[in-house]
Amino acid sequence: MAQLPNIQENLSADTFLRGLWEENPVFVMLLGMCPVLAVTNTTMNAIAMGLATTFVLVCSSLLVSLLRNWIPRQVRIAAYIVIIATFVTIVDYAIQAISLELYAALGAFIQLIVANCVILGRAEAYASKQRLSATFINSLGMGAGFTLALLSLGTVREILGNGTILGFGLFPADFQPWVVMILPPGGFFVLGAWLLLFNWLRLRKERGARELLGASANAR
Q1: Helices 76-98 and 43-66: angle between axes, nearest 10 degrees
Q2: Hey, CA dihedral for 156, 160, 162, 167, is it positive or negative?
Q3: For labelling, which of 38, 88, 112, 133 has a CA lying 20 to 30 Å from the CA of 49?
Q4: What are phi and psi of 11, to 5 degrees?
Q5: Distance between CA 172 and CA 61 in Å, rounded?
Q6: Is residue 163 left, alpha or beta, with left meaning phi > 0 and alpha meaning psi from -120 to 50?
Q7: Reduced to 3 states, what is the DSSP secondary structure of residue 176?
Q8: Strand residue runs (E) in the chain
Q9: Residue 207 has pLDDT above 80, yes or no
Q10: Averaged over 198-216, what is the pLDDT?
Q11: Strands 168-169 and 164-165, how do they pair?
Q12: pTM metric for this prediction
């Protein structure tokens, strides 16, 4: 993850939107691949993991930002992990209390949020250098981008693999599900397709910007 300059960022729409497009944790930075591939076999699992990760990301980033001037540089990574683990424990018990079925479906990947590079990376590269307001907006955008990526995979895999969306049937009874889509290989197939689409859109946007710049230069 690119290190951001140690200066205070001015709040703008880009502070939030970067996480959805330019710095999307999954489609651009390719971070957090373990839960992206493992728990996105259904839409509900994808939403739950996305929201859980967003909660931990936002809360840990806010606390890191609040304590950034008091955490010694020599132990900052260890301190960040302790902070992240605290909020992961809260999420773990909350999901267990809300739905044992969902807790069983997500399995060990709830606890593995501690090792998610998205969260630790934002703590080190952004939250430790920015004030609370900018940290909150930026981490919320990164969490939304991560959740959107999981939802994109989970929706496609559930529709093609089960013929349902959030458990509701979409196709006639004679529909033959693509079982491979709810298996591990299906996660790689769908992720690859989304990466192709995302990169194509990004390149198209960059090409359009270059053409517009060239047209403006010629007009002069």
Answers
A1: 140
A2: positive
A3: 133
A4: -65, 135
A5: 46
A6: left
A7: coil
A8: 164-165, 168-169
A9: yes
A10: 80
A11: antiparallel
A12: 0.87
